[in-house]
Amino acid sequence: MKTLRIVSILAVLVTVLALAAACAAPAPTAAPTAAPPPTAVPEPTKAPEPAKPTEAPQAAAPTSKLFANYPTTLPAHCNADAVKAAMAKAEELWVNPEQETSGWKPNIRPAQKRYKIGYIQGLGGFPADTRMVNSVKVAADLACVDLVFCDSKYEAEAAINCAQVMKDQKVDGVINSNWFAPSMEGMAEILKGIPVVTNDVPAPNTTFFGVDNCKAGTAAGEYLVGWVKKNYTGNVADIWVTSNENPDVGEVPQMRIGCMEEAVKKGLPEIPADHYVRIPGGSFTDKSFESMTTWLTAHPDAKMILTTNINDNGAVGAATACDSAGRSANCAVVGHGGEAQAWNELDKPDAQSAFKATVDYVQNEYGRYLLPAILDLAEGKQVPDVIHNYIYNLDRSNMAEHAALRPSD
Predict the structure, then answer these.
(1) In terms of Cα–Cα distance, which of 217, 278, 277, 281 is closest to 246?
(2) Residue 81 lies in a domain
(3) Do 287 and 254 belong together in one domain?
(4) By the 8 A CB rule, do 328 and 318 touch?
(5) Exposed site from 177, 305, 326, 344, fewest CB < 10 Å?
(6) Is the pLDDT confidence value at 53 over 60?
């Protein structure tokens, strides 16, 4: 019995010791939990910088007399980069002496505000049209005005539509370079009340800009007279004078032909009156080529033929007809305009081309006069009814001298 009591006491002690050991053991360690990312502390909001005072854009310093009076500080509506680029382009294009008409000179300057000026093209893509457009774009950038374009496409309906477009656009002025003369009166009626400068073809109640057509025709005629006296040894009474005309351009451009004929009559009076003939096909190379070919075929015995046209396109067509017929030595052709076709013909040796010269109108400079004229009208200044541009005779003898004027198209 005593022994049993001892065993019981020992069992209790063992149990107590086991429980004590269990309580003393460390608890199993849990996997560590990732600490949350620290909360971003927002940066203090910076106060906006005070606005800088508006500065007037600065134009490039002029490098030629063209811009002697152009301001170096521009109005806020001007784009300084566009002005600088236009100055550089103008110095390439506008190299002839400035022309003065009735006391008026073109004043290249920024407009009083950002005017919207309409430009009606004669025939989009036509080389002369392209040169005029490019020149006007340069002038518009210098004047800090916006241009609205419309192509009259050498069509009556398109021309009238262009006039309506300009009216609907509420332009401040229009440069109308439409060449389809029968549309001019209707266009003028639609544009009534809007300042208009016409280019090449006049219209009622507008300022006309363009060549002095009779002066240009006289220059062509006098050139042909000089050429005959220098190069032709035959009988002057055997000479024929042909002209490729185009009535659609109106009476004024046709004066180029009439005044050419008068100059030839004065310089070479021996040519019979019935040797002056007019044939269709003016203005376009293919039509002029066809009509001149027909005339040459009908006159195989013509010993010398003097020919002109209202532009270079038609004149080159006539010259090509002479060359194709093997009659280059029997023809002397003078064109009008100074277009790329004319320069290309003059690149050929004289004996290989009947094309002898062109009266160069320097169409790269048209914007130099057209834009200041319409700007003057929009700003209420006086402008002459007629403004003429610079012209000169170009032939193989002076091509190098005038190389800077050569069109790129």
Answers:
(1) 281
(2) yes
(3) yes
(4) no
(5) 326
(6) no
Domain count, the chain: 2
Q: Quick check: is 150 in a domain?
A: yes
Shared domain check, 335 and 298: yes
Cα 326 → chain centroid: 38
Question: How far is it, in rounded angstroms, from Cα 331 to Cα 42?
Answer: 89
Residue of 313, 297, 306, 312 whose CA lies nearest to 277: 306
Q: What proportions of the chain, in percent to the nearest 5, are helix, strand and coil?
A: 45, 15, 40
* Sheet of strand 116-121, all strands in order from the earlier edge strand to the far edge: 146-151, 116-121, 173-176, 196-199, 207-210, 386-388
Q: Is the pLDDT of residue 1 over 70?
A: no
Number of CB atoms found within 10 A of residue 333's CB: 35
Q: Do residues 140 and 117 make contact, with C-beta atoms less than 8 angstroms apart?
A: yes
Do 104 and 192 lie in one domain? The reply is: yes
pLDDT digits (tens, 9 = 90+) for 285-298: 999 999 999 999 99
Match 């052709």 to its residue by tokens.
Answer: 333
pLDDT of residue 103: 82
Mean pLDDT, the chain, rounded, equals 86
The verdict on 248 and 312 lying in the same domain is: yes
Question: What CATH code is carried by the domain that includes residue 233?
Answer: 3.40.50.2300
Report if residue 183 sits inside a domain: yes
Cβ(271)–Cβ(265) below 8 Å: yes
Q: Is residue 15 part of a domain?
A: no
Of the candidates 73, 147, 72, the residue with the CA atom closest to the CA atom of residue 114 = 147
CA-closest candidate to residue 272, choices 260, 264, 280: 264
The answer for 102, left when phi > 0, alpha when psi is -120 to 50, beta otherwise, is left
Residue 259 domain boundaries: 213-360
